[in-house]
Amino acid sequence: MVHLRRKILSFGNLINQLQQNVRWSSSLKTKDKNSVQPQRSFKYADLTVCLADLHQLNPKPDVKELLFGKYFTDHMLKIHYYESMNGWQAPEIMPFGNIVLHPAAKVFHYAIELFEGMKAYRGVDNKIRLFRPELNMERMNNSAMRIGLPSFRGEELIKCICRLITIDQEWVPHSTASSLYIRPTFIGIDPTLGVVASDAALLYVIMSPVGSYFHATKQPGISLLADPRYTRSWPGGCGSSKVGSNYGPTIPAQQLASEKGLHQVLWLYGEDHEITEIGAMNVFIVYINDNGERELLTPPLNGLILPGIVRNSLLSMARQWNQFRVSERSITMKEITRLLSENRLLEIFGAGTAGIISPVSCVEFLGQKLHIPTTEQSEPIYQMLKKHLLDIQYGVIPEHPWSLVIE
Which residues in this protein are found as N6-(pyridoxal phosphate)lysine (predicted)? Predict the structure, then answer.
């Protein structure tokens, strides 16, 4: 640890060093015409760094004992925004610590808050990688626009995050079964009551070494509760934005699932019981279509579901392979039960940054437990996709346009 600290302190210019060391992926240079393009933003070049004292450094947990979101690294990133002070302020990396806010801060009263979920992976070559971070930045800006928070240039935040990872690099687990979870968070801190856009905001980033999202279980897959009484999102709502108000109200349904001995909630919408998401993951289904072919199916981006980075990646991978049909359309529980009765439903799995790819073994719907044979297939598609995804993230495929390598 002392050696690492001396190495960090020996950097000549903390601001310019990362610019030289980080090799940006080609995908980061591609601009989406539909993405939010801010007129003003904070800049990585203005970043200041204050390192924690040795006595402030925390012991690192054993990789075998990692629980999701329990441990946090030694440093954090903070960037303030004040409309009255020309907008974005200079980014700061500082020792991890509590945040002090005014009791009237808008985040407390009107849920003006959003967040992202990213991971840093230590590869088999010991290099640390981010996975398609430009897509997280695009989604974060879209979420900010949805709740009236200011936009920013995603590449500038990525550079700041890379610097934060460089400082806390030993918190990235030396394991291909674990990773460093990165939580960018953006909150309204204007100390005034009233449902209007916040003139002050705080963007901060904290990091946590994590293992599996789900606790160890004897079951080969996760089990789900599909209860039509609970709805996660609706047309015209903010289900497609990663805002905190999407998640707090889901807790009662999740508690009910836990009481029944089930892992997660399969979220439904409408009288037809349209499937939308699994917990906080996108949902995928594999079935035999009317032409006798295997088909990978996921709900479309119709405003009811989150545009997941892993979702996007799995669809791209599957279409490139061209080994089975790939489609995006709505699917209902009625169709699920019919496919099961006809022995045409092969797999259901969830996909997301936290849960990676999680096969489903059981769905409880209207008092009936439906057995899903996901893990019983001889060559399941979910395993093929998961292996290829992890090979990219952990550097088994060393050069890939979706990987941002931090040298």
Answer: 242
